[in-house]
Amino acid sequence: MNKRQTRSFALISTAIAAVVFLGMTVDSHRQFPKLTNAQQITPEVTRGKDVWHEYNCINCHTLFGEGAYYAPDLTKITQQRGTPYLTAFLKDPSKFYDEQRHRRLMPNLKLNDEEIAALIAFMDWVSKVDNQGWPPRPILVTGTSIPGMDLTVAQQNVAGGNQPPAARPVSGKEDPIALGEALFRTTATPVCSACHSIAPGVNLAGPTLAGLAARAKQVIASPDYKGKAKDVEGFIRESIVTPSAYLHPGDMYSANGMSFMPDTFAKSLTPEQIDQLVAYLASFQ
């Protein structure tokens, strides 16, 4: 191209790029109210934002991947933990984590009930912002360096002295245990492995699921059990769909007769997905 053609090409390309950029900017602003869930910004949400800043939560935590990295990203924390758990945790974090074992402990900020409710309302609003999948990982509370935390079901059964499912033909497309394991690790709201370990003795926000089938049998046989399950699969299904039917011992798992585990799985998962999770979890002898 000669100089005139080069100049024309540059001007036309710049003009096209500018028009595209302006169009995308206008479209983004058009979608902001819906994407940011702006219609749900209540006075309590605004108050919660003030609490967040007043106590400098961002010095340790992040929202949308922005902030400090000493403590977990809290973008989806209300979907991962639920209001009952967060309320109890904010009142006394020391009941949930041991400083020596976990190497860090959130300080007790001495928040009053109004501040806690407002802060949770703010974080719940944040969790419902359409952030296009960012941050691209499940929330991590105690880290992933705990030995045995990432055992597969086959490895877990081997560790327990049982014949692993891998000893029989397994199809990732058809085997319900394999499909259940995939759901356990990847279901977005929330990710089961964010709260539950499958390693013996490793309790996170929820109790370890190692040996779940054996424990289920003991619970069902106990006179203190008031649920409706008659077998291991029924107990696991009940625990997923109506988690407060049986409360696992320990103050860090329930309060006021209500489990901290979210009770939304009956709606967020299909019956087929629940069947697959049950098959996976029932294999933990």
Give an overview of the whole structure.
With 285 residues, the chain is mostly helical. The protein has three domains: 1-35; 38-127, Cytochrome c-like domain (Cytochrome Bc1 Complex, Chain D, domain 2, Orthogonal Bundle), CATH 1.10.760.10; 153-282, Cytochrome Bc1 Complex, Chain D, domain 2 (Orthogonal Bundle). 46% of the residues lie in helices and 3% in strands. It contains twelve helices and four strands; from the N terminus they run ααββααααααααββαα. It has helices at residues 3-35, 43-54, 77-81, 83-91, 99-102, 113-127, 153-159, 176-186, 212-221, 232-241, 265-268, 271-282; strands spanning 62-63, 66-67, 254-255, 258-259. Helix 2 packs across helix 6. The longest helix is centred in the first third of the chain and has 33 residues, at 3-35. The radius of gyration is 24 Å and the shape is globular. The relative contact order is 0.10. This is C-type cytochrome. Keywords: Electron transport, Heme, Iron, Metal-binding, Transport. It comes from Pseudomonas veronii.
